[in-house]
Design brief:
The structure holds two protein chains of two kinds. Chain A is an all-alpha fold. In chain A, 77% of the residues lie in helices and 0% in strands. Chain B has a single domain, classed as MetI-like fold (Orthogonal Bundle), CATH 1.10.3720.10. Chain B has a two-stranded antiparallel sheet. In chain B, helix 3 (67-98) crosses helix 11 (261-268), helix 4 (101-116) crosses helix 6 (165-189) and helix 7 runs antiparallel to helix 8. Classes of the chains: A mainly alpha, B mainly alpha. Chain B: Belongs to the binding-protein-dependent transport system permease family. CysTW subfamily.
Chain lengths: 279, 309
Amino acid sequence: MIMKRRKILSGIALFVCFLTALWGIFWLFFIIIDVLRHGITAINPALFLNDPAPPGEQGGGLRNAFVGHLMITICATLIGVPVGVLGGTFLAEYGRKYKISKVISTLADIMVSVPAIIVGAFVYAVIVKPLGHFSGWAGAVSLGIIMIPTVLRTTENMLSLIPWTLREAAFALGAPYYKVIIQVVYRGAATGILTGIILAIARVTGEAAPLLFTSFNNTFFSLNMNEPIASLTVTIFQYAMGPYEDWHTQAWGASLMITVFILLATITGRLLIKRRYKD
Amino acid sequence: MSIQKSKILDFGFLVFTAVTAFSVIIISAGIFLVLFKESLPAMNRFGFEEFIFSTEWDPVQEVFGALPALTGTLITAFLALLLATPIAIGIAIFITEIAPPFLKGIIGTSIELLAAIPSIIYGMWGLFTLAPIMSQYIEPFFQSTIGKVPLIGKLFEGTPLGVDLFTASIILSIMIIPFTASLARDSFNLTPAVLKESAYAMGATKWEVVKDVVMPYSKLGVLGGVGLSLGRALGETMAVAFVLGNLNQIPKSLFEAAATVTVKLANEFTEADKDIYLSSLYYLAFLLFIMSFAILAIAKAFLVRAEKR
């Protein structure tokens, strides 16, 4: 009798756990479907090819924000990825035996979760204020700083997975350490490092907070990284909070593009990792 | 290529990678020092206690106090934690103990995608989709049920507009579920199979194994995961900026607009025309940085200890 009660209790508890999993999936689909539903109506050639119309007027597009966002993200990647990959290399290879490497690792783990807006405030103080104006570069630097810890930690983990015997084989041939790293270790860990980079790019693509007071915003088309430059995320914030129906629609369109890009990038990253460990 | 030359090259590469690795320390220390330096004028003028416990925020009179922003931040973060933790632990149990292999992958991926959706999308969806639903159906429902209970009912007073602490906390909770869940899952997986098997051999049901063997064993790791999520919730900006209004007041109920440190920064940073105004915002940012850094460091320490066992 008592056994039966315990069995029933166990069944109920496990069913509740199943419900929690449904709860999580429910929100995911709710958000994705909602962004699709609203965003799909806004997707047309004009959105990509036209610059914004004056506030309150019909039409216009977000060409400036698309181009600006792309430029900021590319520059951020050029700053964040090399630093992250090389730093991770030090932690996993040359710095293996030093205590300081552990400290850097732990610090990077903490920095991954530090509020992005704090990074924006930091860059405002060290770049925007001294120069006296907002600029695309300042935005790229903040996103780069946000990327560094993520890329550094994944690189370190991926390099640590490469068996030590591989390196020894190369050493036995008389190769210096730097050659071993570049020609043996990097080659073996390439997929993992690439995944880390993809996920880091996906993460910063959706960042708005650090751009608010670094790259700021620009209603005109601009390719000059020394001036304020429009970005999709800041534009979404401005448009969504704005009073015009047209603005809301375009904000949904931009949201859809960003969401699709990020979800695709994340899924690609996961598939890469999966394939890597199946072989 | 002489041995000499390759030695020099090797040393060069070593120095190069070392410098990039140390950049993490430089950036972290730099953020701390720069925020501190920028907030000095406000620190000198308002001091520590006065700033933290003052509710004034008046750019015209140049009087600034942090209490409303700090309470807003803490209330939303803790409420989100309260909502997210049980759900996340449930998800972790489901993935590690119950789900058939094919479901494991699907649910695991879905939960990870929830973490990949950017803050600004949560905010947009929260403002245009969730807030109206909250104000029309969910909040009135709460008011007519729990709202009737004395004392607790006070929490649900006010006009249900949907743009309030409650909606913001719900969005935050959805955002932090993935972090708690994935760390809880990892710590559940650290439980030695022998322990579980011996419990089954004693005739324990699955739930008893989870409750009395897995949970106690992975307590540290789960706590670390909760701490990490709390650190994230404190610093979330855009998702909250859309659905919280930016109202400088100490909220009396969950259905009131409020402000958090991050929302204040996002809304007022570019409007700060006076040095003392900007400095006060930096002071807020500095306090937020210290708080989130400390919480994340403690959480990290828990996770490291959990792995060492």
